[in-house]
Amino acid sequence: MDERLTTIKGIGPGREKQLHKLGITNVTSLLTYFPRSYEDRRTIYRIGELKSGMTGGVVGNVIAVQEKRPRPRLSILEVVIADGTGPLKIVLFNQGYKKNFYKKGQRLYAYGKAEIQYGSMQMNTPQIENLGDGGEPDRGIVPIYALADGVSQFVVRSSVRNWFAANPELQEILPAEVRESHQYMSRYDAFKMMHFPDSSERYEEARHQLAYEELFVMQSGLALLRNKEQCHKGPKMGPNGDLMAQCIENLPFSLTGDQQRALEDIRIDMEDERPMQRLLQGDVGSGKTVVATLSLLKAIENGYQGALMAPTEILAAQHYEGITEVCRNLGITIELLTGSTTKKEKERIYEGLADGSINMIIGTHALIQEGVNFHNLGLVIIDEQHRFGVEQRARLQQKGTYPHVLIMTATPIPRTMTLSVYGDLAVSLIKEMPPGRKPVKTYAVNSSYKERLRTFFGKEMAEGRQVYVVCPLVEESEKLDLQAAEELYLELKAYFYKAYEVGLVHGRMKPSEKDEVMNAFHKGEISLLVSTTVIEVGVNVPNATIMCIEGAERFGLSQLHQLRGRIQRGSEQGYCWLLTASQDERVLQRLEVLVKSNNGFEISYEDLRLRGPGDILGTRQSGVPDFILGNIVEDTAMINQARKDALKVMESADNPDYQILLETVKKRNEKNAEYAD
After folding, report:
1. What is the mean pLDDT of residues 290-315?
2. If DSSP codes are grouped into helix, strand and coil, which group holds residue 147?
3. Candidates 3.40.50.300, 3.40.50.1370, 3.40.50.2000, 3.40.50.10840; correct CATH number of 169-436+638-677?
4. Exposed, middle or buried by CB within 10 Å (0-12, 13-18, 19+), for 99?
5. d(C-alpha 230, C-alpha 276), whole Å
6. 576, 558, 559: which is closest to 567 by C-alpha?
7. N or C: where does the chain have the smaller number of CB atoms within 10 Å of the terminal CB?
8. For the segment 495-508, what is each residue's pLDDT rounded down to a tens digit?
């Protein structure tokens, strides 16, 4: 269906240019340019039959045309038509330029809502078609398309209609057994029913089928990737040993039920010869790092090396400190490798990784540099994976011979999205919070609270606590964001003059400068930190108990929840203040979701529903597909069914009957690969 538009009857260079304005460039994009709405024109009424409030269509001859200008910049064009049963006034606002379009005696079709105003029946801005002498209006359920200047409904409608008139069939993508099991119509009929439905029931059937087809193709692509990974042999591990048991003993807390279940999932995967491809998904502060540490120890006690890659130097350093602490006295060698590591240190680490004397390495993208070679890499863990491109992740995996892979994310996305974005991975969830953690008390307040809040900050800091103040996003300008952050920093520095140290961190700082400030905050040398969202994935400061987010309405709910998670790390009560100047009821309702819930999965679902997936994960990095009809928030049952069907079909991917499907899947996977890096 990649044929040029000019292969369709009635489309010459001029009309092709018009369709290009709508993003329609070939037959495929024409057929998938689905109507935004429909009008039921199966009945044509006589003007005398119209009742006030009724929506319908009439045919009549023009008997009068008049333009009125009641005030500057307002033009009212009145076109009166009649059909022998009465007149109808058609009112067009600010369309005086159409005055010469309508002539007395002209035959028009008008479709819209009829209302009695000033004693006469009229339609305001209806759909109008000039029927000429013998023409008949479109009957049936008529598609209404989104348009651009200079493109009419007739142009799109006739183009689609002419394609269907000249083509009796469409290539099927879904395998015959899948179509039969769901009792689907032909793909040709489904597309036809989307544009020119016989009834609302047939339209719904067609929409469901084509949405399912999108989801099935996506799931088939993910199943294919998974099968490809699993055809390799990876490092088969033995049962859990002493190192893991000793580490668990060293922990100052007991593992939660969710942590234990995740570890069991990982154990089963690592004791299989097929390389593990697992997603460890947990809310902020749920204890994913402990699970990661124990998984790395399992690799080590089986004679392999383990690597953990984090997106920032400060997060890598934090992992290193935390893991070193829980692995003390275990007799293993753990090193940290980042861009800041000195040349001499790097050479020493490179040597230790190559000869196997280093058991575990924690680092940033420095781990995937050319000089890094492992003796026997058995497990790769990638933290906050959506911060890395696909290529970067693959390069770390290639440092070993099909090592096991564990991906961690604190973005608590619902299962529907998990299946869409990570469908090639098995999933372990950690929803349970470690015992003793108090839920953060969250308040949404207007900007008049600023003074009271600063008093509260002072009181908390006097007791040795620390405060985060996050700046609002200003437009989409880094420069303006920075300006806002600097102004707020100077304001707070003056307010707490000499009493408490105030720091500033933002995205334009050099990594070394940023790390310096964050380390000072971590050590307690800075009491109040003014920041842009660079702290969203950042350092663990158990002593920080207050998070104040200015211009909270400018952030997504998931992002606000991530930020709030920065103060849920210690045993003390945390407070989060969401400041907004907005009076919009919808904004306040949205923020109320955070006030009422500390459950990241609930919050994420609301965020998905309100904003869409691309805004949350970033479509370019995560590979979230842009569906035309499918909806990963609403179509949960359909996604699950598509996944089941796709896994079954892809077991026989070499079946020649699946050739068209595989070509479609391949095209989709290639398109998604373009998202990364």
Report:
1. 93
2. coil
3. 3.40.50.300
4. middle
5. 8
6. 576
7. C
8. 998 899 999 988 77
